Each structure stands twice: as structure tokens, then as C-alpha cells.
Amino acid sequence: VATFIIILPAVVLILMTALCIPLNQGFYHPWLAPMAKCVFLIQNWSMVEVFIIGVIVSLVKIADMATIELGISFWAYAGFAICFTVAISNLDRYQCWERIDALQRA
Fold first, then answer.
1. pLDDT class for 106, splitting at 50, 70, 90?
2. Which of 26, 28, 82, 93 is buried deepest, with most CB atoms within 10 A?
3. How far apart are CA 64 and CA 41, in angstroms?
4. Which of 20, 30, 31, 6 has the alpha carbon at shortest distance from 81?
């Protein structure tokens, strides 16, 4: 479970950062294409959104039976889920591949 909700999303964010920095600065590296393939493959396996929805549904159901206090871990993961979702939704595959091809030809 930790692999799909913590480790893979963290790896995706690290790889996205390492991919976007050279693309924005206009530097070509031979590892850009394999890294882009890896990012687009791994992002399908990260289950951040699914997990946070499951947690919220569970909290709503349990709230009738017990007193629930949301601690720092819930809010930290909720913030991480929002940031991860925004980062993934703003990464355009087509534009990324076009930029890699343009840098490779230059």
C-alpha cells in the first residue's frame, strides 16, 4: 500500500522536476526521453487520489460511531494529494514530447 500511495507518487514528482527543469531551460540530455517514458508510465500506478477519497469516505462513515479529530498527518497528505493532482494535470504529454524532440534536433 505504501508503494502506491507514498513511494511512487514521490518518485513521479522527483522525476517530473528533473524532467521539467532541463525542458524549461532549453538543455537537452540523453536521459530526457527515457525519463519522460518513466514518468508517464509510473503516474498511472500512483493512487493518491483514490486513497484520499477512500480516507474521506471512511472518516464520514466512522464519524457516526466515534469522535474523529483530523491531525497534521491527514492535512499533510491532503495537501500532498492536491499538489500531486495539480502537478500531474499540468504536465502535457504532447507538449513534453514536442519539446524533447525540438531540443534533440537543435
1. confident
2. 28
3. 40
4. 6
Q: Which of 21, 11, 76, 20 is nearest to 44 (CA)?
A: 11
CA dist 42 and 14 (Å) reads 12
Q: Tell me, rounded to whole angstroms, the distance of Cα 71 from its chain centroid.
A: 23
Q: Which three cell numbers stand for residue 57?
A: 469516505
Reported pTM:
0.82
Give the closest residue to 5 by CA, choosing from 40, 44, 46, 57: 46
Q: Following DSSP, what letter does each residue of 34-82 receive, concatenated?
A: HHHHHHHHHTTT--HHHHHHHHHHHHHHHTTTS-----HHHHHHHHHHH
13's enclosing H/E stretch is helix 8-25
Phi-psi region of 26 (alpha: psi -120 to 50; beta: other; left: phi over 0): left
